[in-house]
Amino acid sequence: MSNITTSQTIGPFPHEAWAWAVQLTAEVGSAAPQVRVQGAIFDGDGQPINDAWAEAWLPGSAPVESAHAIPGYRRVPTNEEGGFVFSISQPQAPAGKPVAYVTVFARGLVKHQFTAVFLEDDPALAQSALLEQVPPPRRDTLIARKQADGSYLWNIHMQGAHETVFFDYT
Questions:
Q1: Which of 129, 133, 132, 155 is nearest to 144 (CA)?
Q2: CA distance 14 to 23
Q3: What is the model's pTM?
Q4: What's the DSSP call for residue 4?
Q5: What tens digit of pLDDT does each residue of 62-113 get?
Q6: Which of 106, 133, 135, 156 has the most CB atoms less than 10 A away?
Q7: What is the rounded CA–CA span in Å between residue 122 and residue 98?
C-alpha cells in the first residue's frame, strides 16, 4: 500500500493539467475596486522558481464575484522570473484580515505550503488576530508593500533568511 497522496507532488504536467483553473480565474468581471498583488517565488538560494503555482482564496471577493465560475479564487503559474500576479476584487478594506490566503505548489516541495498576504496600508493591521500569532520580526514576510503604480509587491521565499511565514492548515 502506497503512502503517496496527491498533495505530495504537483507532478510533471501541472501546466497542462491545471490550465482549466488558470483560464477560469484569469479574467474576473467585478464592479468592485481591484487590487493587484504581484511578486515572485524564490527558493532557499534566492533563485526564482519558474515552475511554481500560487493559488489564492479571496474571502472578501467571493460575494462580488458570484457570477464568476469560481468566485473568490485564483490559480496562477509563475513565469520565467518566478513572477505571479493576483487581481483581487476588494469591495471593502480587509480590516486586519488577509486580502488573500495563498497556497504554494513547487517542484521539490513534498507538501504544498499555506500562507497569507496582508496589505501594508490596512489601518487595522496592528490588531490582526492572525498576525498576532506570528513573531514580530517575521510579520513583514506576510505584508505586501504598496508601489508607486498602486499595485502591491509581495515576494514569497520558500526558505532562507527571508523565508515567508507558512501556516499549518487543520
A1: 155
A2: 14
A3: 0.87
A4: -
A5: 888 888 888 889 889 999 999 999 998 888 877 899 999 999 988 777 788 9
A6: 156
A7: 10
